[in-house]
Amino acid sequence: MSPRYDFASDNTAPAAPEAMAALNAANAGFAASYGADATVARAADLIRGLLDADAEVRFVTSGTAANAICLAALARPFEGVLAHRDSHVATDETGAPGFFGHGLAIQGLEGASGRIDPQALNAALARAESAHAQPPAALSLTNATEYGTVYSAEALATLTRPVCARGYGVHLDGARLANAAAAGFDLKSVAGLGVDLLVIGGTKAGMTPAEAIVIFRKDLVPRFDARLKQSGQLPSKSRFYAAPFVGMLESGAFVSRAAHANAMARRLAELMPLPLRHPVEANAVFVEMDEATLKRLQASGWFVYRFIDGSVRFMCSWATTPEAIETLIDAVKGARP
Q1: Is 211 helix (H, G, I), strand (E, B) or coil?
Q2: CATH code of domain 17-251
Q3: Which of 178, 215, 230, 288 is the most buried (most CB within 10 A)?
Q4: Quick one: how far is CA 13 from the chain centroid?
Q5: Going by CATH, does the domain composed of 253-335 fall within 3.30.300.20?
Q6: Distance between alpha carbon 56 and the CA centroid of its chain, in Å?
Q7: Where exactly are the structural domains of the chain?
Q8: What's the pTM value of the predicted model, to 2 decimals?
Q9: What integer best gives the mean pLDDT of the chain?
Q10: CA neighbours within 13 Å on the CB side: how many for 303?
Q11: What ranges make up the beta strands (E) of the chain?
């Protein structure tokens, strides 16, 4: 039996037609290399328009690289980065931020359903510095969060305000920023929140592997390309990383495809016969499931797994269909004792 990966991750979906069409268009003829081409320029302009911000934009191959490079730019090796304890940078990047940052530490904070508790942040900021511990130098946020919840602009401002007041850096991991936008998050608010570096996820939004780093803080721009080059993230044919953004942003598919994914997650949650662990606000559904049921579901051909908090995660994507949801629900019902 071939396993089905429909709900294993939004990474498992194919690339959207808008992204593939833009890739084919970018493949015509010769172009300058290392980001000096017209496709990169167009994609950067579209992103600036999306955010209504004056910012520099660079395109890289993976979210892990993007996040790690950004955090290394904001914290020195003997400093730390505050983040939710279950965030991707804290749990799922194999120490890449510390590697790229030559020893910087990720310091986990508490908070329900992936959102940092402001009290936990303020307590961490108020902690007395010591030569025996890495003091915080930056805050890393995620929207949508690792548990599929979405911060409002106001909620993010509550977190960034005390950090910026101390002169610390702010990084926003937007691997699923499209889903947050489709859920109502105002993308044009980001520039005013004190965010220094933003990662816009392309891969999970329906593109081929492509992520955009948005540099709001101008003093970080000099030598940033050298940082990318040393990290193996200055691709010579940059147009092929920028092109999917052109296709998805020009057509509006960046948000509309994410809206479909979010709608499919809501439908899945409505039909799910098991209790939900977290609010369904973007494209993720987390459920309470005993081990025997999980094993039977996996044995029936569905590739799903237990997440950090012990729940079982189902991810919807731009390519999720109502028929796939119905088939999955039938399988879940059949797997229950």
Answers
A1: strand
A2: 3.40.640.10
A3: 178
A4: 16
A5: no
A6: 19
A7: 17-251, 253-335
A8: 0.97
A9: 97
A10: 11
A11: 56-60, 80-84, 105-109, 136-142, 169-174, 197-201, 211-215, 284-287, 312-315
